[in-house]
Amino acid sequence: MSNIALDALKQEIEGPVLAQESMKNHTTWKVGGNAEILVLPKDKKDITRAIMIANKYLQDYLVIGNGSNVLVKDNGIKGIVIKLGNSLSHVKLEGKAISAEAGVSLPKLARKACDYGFKGMEFAVGIPASLGGALLMNAGAHGYQIGELVERVEVIDREGKIKHLNKNQLKFSYRQSNLCDMVVTEATFLLEKGDKGLIKTKMEEMLRKRKASQPLNFPNAGSVFKNPEGDYAGRLIEALGLKGMTIGGAEISSKHANFITNTGGATAKDILSLINLVKERVLKEFEIELELEVMVLGED
After folding, report:
1. Is 293 tagged catalytic?
2. Which of 197, 215, 265, 284 could form a disulfide with 253 if both were Cys (CB 3.0 to 4.6 A apart)?
3. Alpha carbon separation from 44 to 41, 85, 163 (Å, rounded)
């Protein structure tokens, strides 16, 4: 990374610009090496400026949300990492719709929808993701997916230009979307009115189920593998007797086999070793090739 690019970012960006920042502090797995430069944009203008500077100085860049669905390798990430966080987390009511910025957490969005008296967002209350990342991978739970509710999305393209995509321009499928080459900055949802009490009760029930079935006591990144068609990754992994298996500080959760937890001092290499072991065993025993739900970022 050229010092000129770093200086330009520090000069032009209002939010913090950090050099050699440990990604352990910015991912829910609490592993990974340093980002060469981490930008924490104050607003959408900062995102645009960061992209323009990256393009000007021919620097690679990538955008993450709250780091709940990524595994950063131990040698870190070259170039610029733009992390959308609390400064981009406003939610507002617009007539019969709710608009939210990309840094808002899904639990906050679900609770805001409840406060406004809208139903349909309850499933999101237990998903520890930011909205931007959730839209990128079409996050879901309990048979629901975030993409089903989207009315329109505001994005910034690779050239730093703001664009608006309406519902018929968006493509969502199981754990993927057509938003991968863009930075989601805001989304609008059209929801139905409902009874606040019933909405709240439904959210509480979903949180109870999550607490009962998922390992919330150790750092993790949620489901590691996508469910293969007609089956569940967790069931396949459990059937192989791999629950509780450890490599270094990483463990295939004994509570939910599709979770890998950092029990203390895990490295990205430990987690990747377990991922590869699971993939090899499932392929050998069931002839099913598991696909990752998490994104692996950084240098080997």
Report:
1. yes
2. 215
3. 7, 11, 12
Question: In sequence order, which residues have a C-beta less than 8 Å from that of residue 206 and are 6 or more positions away?
Answer: 122, 123, 125, 126, 141, 142
Query: What are 73's two structure tokens?
Result: 């390798």
Tell which residue, 148, 142, 160, 39, has the closest CA to residue 88: 39
Catalytic residue among 130, 177, 223, 253: 223
User: CA dihedral defined by 201, 205, 207, 208, rounded to 10 degrees?
Assistant: 140
273 vs 252: CA distance, rounded Å: 11
In single-letter form, the type of residue at position 145 comes to Q
pLDDT tens-digit map of 145-201: 999 999 999 999 999 999 999 999 999 999 999 999 899 999 999 999 999 999 999
Active site residue 210: no
Single out the residue of 175, 145, 148 nearest to residue 293, CA to CA: 175
- The secondary structure of residue 10, as a DSSP letter, is H
- What are 105's two structure tokens? 């957490």
Residue in 152, 175, 251, 253 annotated catalytic: 175
